[in-house]
Amino acid sequence: MLAADRSLASKITTTNTPAPSASTDSTKRGGRKLIDPEALARLRGLSVRAKQVVDGVLQGLHKSPHQGASVEFAEHKEYAPGDEIRHVDWKAFGRFDKYYVKKYEQETNLQAMFVVDASGSMDYGAEGMLTKFEYASTMVTAMSWLLLRQQDAVGLVKYAGEVGQVVPLRARLNHLNHITAALEKTKVKGKTDLEKGLFSVVETTKRRGIVYVLSDFFSDEEKPFRMLRQLVSRGNQVTVFHVLDGDELTFPFKGMSLFEGMESDQRLLVEPNLVRKTYLERINKHRADVRRRCLNAQVKYVEVDTREAPGEVVLRHLKSTASKARGGR
Length: 329
Known about the structure:
By secondary structure, the protein is α/β, with parallel strands linked by helices. The chain has helices at residues 37-41, 46-63, 90-96, 132-148, 175-184, 194-204, 223-233, 246-250, 272-296, 310-327; strands at residues 10-14, 28-29, 32-33, 74-78, 100-104, 111-117, 153-159, 163-170, 210-215, 237-244, 257-261, 267-270, 300-305. It contains ten helices and 13 strands.
């Protein structure tokens, strides 16, 4: 079935409408509104989508009982007598009419490199939703903005069968324009070679920092994980965001369907009910294998379901990182 192609994702033509995607009720929690991916898909432009995500994340951070508020090491708390005025976040005051203080655990600014899969399989997206690449790009842009606003350096590597583009590390806020432009002009196509993308990170980063990898990992090779281990051994904090579409996780198709390989010329006409069980076994094995390999490489693993609001994924990551930082004190 689909496993005959290196990519489990395919373009699909069906005689019936796929089953509804998962509910997005989770995008409203504790009075916080995090825009759902279906609504984001209706917005034009990566910058506009990312701004919506950032706004929701910042609200969530300020309302959270957890204090962690920066992408990795900073904290926000309400201003109290004795706090230094220079640490007040005036942008937060303008938005929430309350004083919040930023505190940093280390003076050295961070370096964060995003490694984004732009291969053919990332061009899949359920009808009316963001493609996996669009979803990953929205996350990258939102997280880059959060990093740059605290004067951390951000860079980008796009890859498919070859390294498509490297945007060097910069800490200026207007560098976000370069990140956004690089993502928006991407032609998502070709096979996957994550090893080349990671090798580019090794070559371009001179000191340890943070590496974020966003991919569906539809590749059978072990080599990328050896490269991830090498990055960890050099003192980098590595996080993998394993981006999967809801259709890939649930296989909701009904009626005779034509599946077209997105990284090959293969086509398969099949009755979904006949292959659903085998497909789900294979995709679940794929998910478990990627998770296991990440854990073995001492890499943080985050599975991303594109039916969930990107802001929820980013916010959960920030809280998890902040909790880990506090626990390590």
